[in-house]
Specification:
Number of helices: 18
Strand content: 15-25%
Structural class: alpha+beta
CATH topology of the largest domain: Nucleotidyltransferase, domain 5
Distance between the termini: 56 Å
Largest sheet: 7 strands, mixed
Shape: globular
Number of strands: 23
CATH superfamily of the largest domain: ATPase, nucleotide binding domain
CATH class of the largest domain: Alpha Beta
Strand order of the largest sheet: 17-18-16-15-21-22-23
Number of domains: 2
């Protein structure tokens, strides 16, 4: 048996699978995010430990016979978070999360330094880890002076489980300290960010073994004493392992809190000027690229809050038949935007409201705006040389039949819907554990899900949506110019 332990922003999920990767049971524990100031987003790492403990203990209580045969735990988690430890392993301050934008000035300064984009393979976004540490150095110098190690969120769980301060390639690629092509910490990037090599954890590949769970902790959690912890991957890389996105041409679109369009690459092919992320894969010796829109289902959730409806009720009211593009245009930049604009300050907007505009018009425009933003990501990925002829749809938004039809038409690609079942980062983490402990090849373990249906673009609407996207793309400069 193996566990995939996924540390998300809203909770920790522990998924128990057998040695063939078939899910057996799961447990979850919720997390909260604090926002001390506008643009700030933080969590207390002690809450991660409490949630992970609760989830694992629940599995052990519910499935004691299976847990007795547990061999490994693989990790996945939210990327970019800055978890600062002192020399004794104590946490110095709350973790600054991936969606925190306070370090936008520091990010711009680092991004402008010579060679940074070339070595890191990415624009330095405010959400990345390096600008967060530059902010701490400037605003909290007494804390910065005590930083002995910077760990990413899931790697703090690894530290708790094993006592080792390590990370792996896919998560570390989102720090702006890693030479992504060389898969190693970059002395130049560290120096430009005001950091030292000794403050970085040791680097592993995603299938490498970190070590056994500490004996006292294993007993406390109800686990066997010989359980091994495997390094795992950042959430998107782990999700790619969970759906078998491993080689050139494989890709998925995730309609979650943020929207992600991800494709595996057979080699290293950076395109930082387009705001495409080029990261190491959790699979050894591989890379992936993705475009990100920061508010996907978050945009729909926002509309649900202000209308007093549920997201499901809003999308259900649209039916299943795809309409022509609506007259209302929505810019989904409620939390800023990454691909292709790299703009943490821009905010969203409705355009074209009139006295006759109703709730369904607003819902339709929100779904269209997010879909158009994902087309921006697709075009950026294609410009970098990525080839995609179809996509797998995952995430909560993929439950909306209308949205999937809309997205297939806007992207002009067939979209495969997987059969009901376990998908995503926790499954990917468990698969990484299987490979790490047993030595099995990733391609044998990380298979693609069975497809229940393929949704094709609507040829009657394709031209209209191409024109609507062109109008959408022209709106950003005008929105950006507003005071």
């Amino acid at each position: 048996m193996f566990i995939g332990l996924d540390l998300g922003t809203s909770g920790v999920r522990a998924l128990l699978v057998d040695d063939e990767g078939a899910p057996r049971h799961s447990a979850e524990a919720r997390l909260a995010v604090t926002h001390p100031k506008s643009g700030w987003s933080e969590q207390d790492p002690a809450d991660w430990i409490a949630a992970a403990r609760a989830a694992v203990v629940a599995l052990a209580a519910d499935r004691p016979a299976d847990i007795a045969r547990l061999r490994g735990i693989g990790l996945s988690g939210q990327m970019h978070g800055a978890t600062l430890l002192d020399a004794n392993g104590g946490v110095l301050r709350p973790c600054i999360l991936w969606n925190d934008t306070r370090s936008h000035r520091q990010a711009a300064r680092l991004d402008a330094l010579p060679g940074v984009r070339e070595r890191s393979a990415n624009i330095v976004f405010p959400g990345f880890t390096a600008p967060k540490l530059a902010w701490v150095a400037e605003e909290e110098p007494e804390i910065f002076a005590r930083v002995a190690t910077v760990l990413l969120p899931k790697d703090y769980l690894s530290f708790w489980l094993t006592g080792r301060r390590v990370s792996e390639m896919s998560d570390s690629a989102g720090t702006a300290w890693l030479d992504v092509g060389a898969r190693a910490w970059s002395p130049d990037l560290l120096a430009q960010g005001g950091m030292r090599r000794d403050q970085m954890p040791d680097l592993l590949e995603g299938t490498d073994i970190v070590g056994p769970v500490r004996g006292d902790l294993a007993r406390d959690l109800g686990l066997p004493e010989d359980v091994l912890v495997v390094a795992g991957g950042g959430d998107n890389a782990a999700a790619a392992c969970g759906v078998g996105t491993l080689t050139e041409g494989d890709g998925f679109v995730s309609l979650g809190t943020s929207g992600v369009l991800l494709t595996a690459r057979d080699g290293f092919a950076a395109a930082p000027d387009s705001a495409v992320h080029t990261f190491c894969h959790a699979v050894p010796g591989a890379w992936y690229q993705m475009g990100v829109t920061l508010a996907a289902t978050d945009s729909l959730n926002w509309l649900a809050r202000v209308t007093g409806e549920t997201p499901a009720a809003l999308t259900r009211a649209l039916g299943e038949d795809l309409d022509e593009p609506g007259c209302v245009r929505f810019l989904p930049y409620l939390s800023g935007e990454r691909t292709p604009h790299n703009d943490s300050a821009v905010r969203g907007a409705f355009i074209g409201l009139e006295i006759a505009t109703g709730r369904d018009d607003l819902t339709r425009s929100v779904l269209e705006g997010v879909s158009f933003a994902l087309r921006d990501s697709l075009l950026a990925l294609q410009a970098s040389g990525a080839t995609l002829d179809r996509l797998l749809a995952i995430g909560g938004g993929a439950q909306s039949r209308y949205w999937v039809k809309l997205l297939a038409t806007v992207l002009d690609l067939p979209i495969d819907l997987p059969e009901k079942g376990e998908l995503g980062a926790a499954l990917g983490a468990a698969r990484l554990a299987i490979c790490g402990v047993t030595g099995a090849a990733p391609a044998e373990v990380m298979t693609k899900p069975l497809i229940s249906e393929t949704v094709l673009p609507d040829p009657r609407r394709s031209a209209a949506y191409r024109d609507a996207h062109a109008a959408f793309a022209q709106t950003y400069p005008a929105l950006k110019a507003m005071p």
